[in-house]
Amino acid sequence: MQASDYRTILVEHAAGVARVTLSRPEKRNAMNPRMHEEMAHALPGLVADPAVRVIVITGAGSTFCAGADIKEYFRDLENRPDERARITELARHWMWDVLAQAGKPTIAMVNGHCFGGGFLVSLACDIVVASERAVFGLPEVNWGHLPGGAASLKTIEAMGARMALYYAMTGENFDAATALRERLVTRVVPHEQLQAQVEQLAASLAAKSPMALQAIKEIYRAAPSVGMAHIHDFVQAKVDQLRVRDTGGLRERGMADFIAGKLRTTETGGAKA
């Protein structure tokens, strides 16, 4: 498969930012097997590409993602259990092994409805910026089904077990303000400002040291399991690692600016007295 073969996603690059658009607007960007194939092909390359410093995920049209394509994912594969298992594993892999573990910042730009599997995509990203019009939900129980994959773990991590269980059991939708209150999104913005604000945020992150951002992500992922007894040693190990990897002296120049009382907003400059 090549990028020119993509039929369900659109990948764009500009100024260190890769934007991946789930692009089945006629199906509200519902995820079918083909989309999982294409995401599993596209994301590893973006994560490995040093020219890509930030990855943004969004949806085409007025919807982020309506979840799984029930016909193509369930009905069409009903009598093909091996193929369904393969696609399920592919979906798990690109969301949780690739996107969630990326060593660079990832942003979900939620422009509308964000349900089921689409909700999982947002949970797999580091930062979620939602339009004030966005609507979230885990509606699977309404069809006698269960929230997929890591939904239970990730919603519990974000909002706590009681509220996570409530939304999983009721299948109720909730708006962006509720998602912000329940810590499922990072920021809610006016709909007409969504793209501009995400672009500004992505550009700001792209201007920072990718090595420092990777180390920060690794520390914050590991901190709960590392615990207080070992976190200082773990962070010091990352500092030492950063010093070894930073052959260009960016860290030393940054520290010099800090000691001199300058405010630095980018990796290579932007210092203010």
UniProtKB/TrEMBL annotation:
<dbReference type="GO" id="GO:0016829">
    <property type="term" value="F:lyase activity"/>
</dbReference>
<dbReference type="Pfam" id="PF00378">
    <property type="entry name" value="ECH_1"/>
</dbReference>
<dbReference type="InterPro" id="IPR029045">
    <property type="entry name" value="ClpP/crotonase-like_dom_sf"/>
</dbReference>
<protein>
    <submittedName>
        <fullName>p-hydroxycinnamoyl CoA hydratase/lyase</fullName>
    </submittedName>
</protein>
<keyword id="KW-0456">Lyase</keyword>
<dbReference type="GO" id="GO:0008300">
    <property type="term" value="P:isoprenoid catabolic process"/>
</dbReference>
<dbReference type="InterPro" id="IPR001753">
    <property type="entry name" value="Enoyl-CoA_hydra/iso"/>
</dbReference>
<dbReference type="InterPro" id="IPR018376">
    <property type="entry name" value="Enoyl-CoA_hyd/isom_CS"/>
</dbReference>
<dbReference type="InterPro" id="IPR051683">
    <property type="entry name" value="Enoyl-CoA_Hydratase/Isomerase"/>
</dbReference>
<comment type="similarity">
    <text>Belongs to the enoyl-CoA hydratase/isomerase family.</text>
</comment>
